[in-house]
Automatic annotation (TrEMBL):
Keywords: Hydrolase
InterPro entries per record: Iah1-like, SGNH_hydro, SGNH_hydro_sf
One of the record's GO molecular function terms: hydrolase activity
One Pfam family recorded for the sequence: Lipase_GDSL_2
Name of the protein: GDSL esterase/lipase CPRD49
Residue stretches spanning the membrane: none
Family to which this protein belongs: Belongs to the 'GDSL' lipolytic enzyme family.
Length: 245
């Protein structure tokens, strides 16, 4: 553990989360926005479904850990909704079991935010995988209903990316499944809006959190008056998007 202690925001899920720090992903955006305010911890596992997550949930989020996350953003379901293989192998999980798995995981980690994005654009990248938007929508709708029941904030990323007319080419990677940099900007913005508007105490919105070691210092750049220094702790000029949602 590296101090001082900050709030921990955990991202938990399948490749949707594992890839979130690649190529301007939404996880990387959140890590930049929360710099010196909270630690963004990634627990993304490519290829996982809700069964696999439930098997090891106690190891990923041990109840006796000294530091518990203040917020968990979770995504599972894209692999669960893949068609059943005749061999019985593979990631498919029946819809009813999927919902119950997600309920158990959410209860374990006291989930507050869930991303919902079960979509597929057929580009031939995974030719042996049976994945359709129609089936994915059933899983997506079921998860949204569960989130409403459990008072969990649900972010519907599938409809989110469709705010752009060119979403099929601008928002989905060549594999037909994962988010591009442009789509990640939309998702990061929606996550920040949820956090800002939530009634959680204390607030976890980035502008509500103190900046670590944000006090003035004689070691900063000297101001034009030659008698003081310029505190750079909260500068955000380097960001193309301000994220003051």
């Amino acid at each position: 553990m590296v101090g001082p202690e900050r709030p921990v925001i955990a991202l938990f899920g399948s490749s949707f989360v594992q890839y979130s720090f690649s190529n301007g992903g939404w996880g990387a955006i959140l890590a930049d926005v929360y710099a010196r305010k909270a630690d963004i911890v990634v627990r993304g596992y490519q290829g996982w479904n809700s069964r696999r997550a439930l098997e090891v949930i106690d190891k990923v989020f041990p109840k006796d850990a000294a530091v518990q996350p203040s917020l968990v953003v979770m995504y599972f379901g894209g692999n669960d909704s893949i068609g059943k293989h005749p061999s019985g192998l593979g990631p498919h999980v029946p819809l009813e079991e999927y919902v119950e798995n997600m309920r158990k995981i959410a209860n374990h980690i006291k989930l507050k935010v869930s991303t919902v994005a079960f979509f597929s654009i057929d580009r031939g990248a995974l030719t042996n995988v049976s994945r359709t938007n129609e089936v994915g929508k059933r899983y997506s709708d079921a998860l949204i209903m569960l989130c409403k029941e459990m008072k969990i904030e649900a972010i519907d990323a599938f409809h989110m990316i469709q705010r752009r007319e060119d979403w099929e080419t601008a928002c989905i990677m060549s594999d037909g499944i994962h988010l591009t940099e442009e789509a990640s900007k939309l998702l990061a913005g929606d996550i920040l809006k949820v956090i800002k508007n939530a009634k959680w105490e204390p607030s976890l919105y980035w502008q509500s959190l103190p900046t670590e070691f944000g006090e003035p210092s004689d070691y900063y750049v000297v101001a034009p008056d030659g008698k003081s220094t310029i505190n750079q702790s909260d500068w955000t000029y380097h960001r193309k998007i301000r994220w003051d949602v």
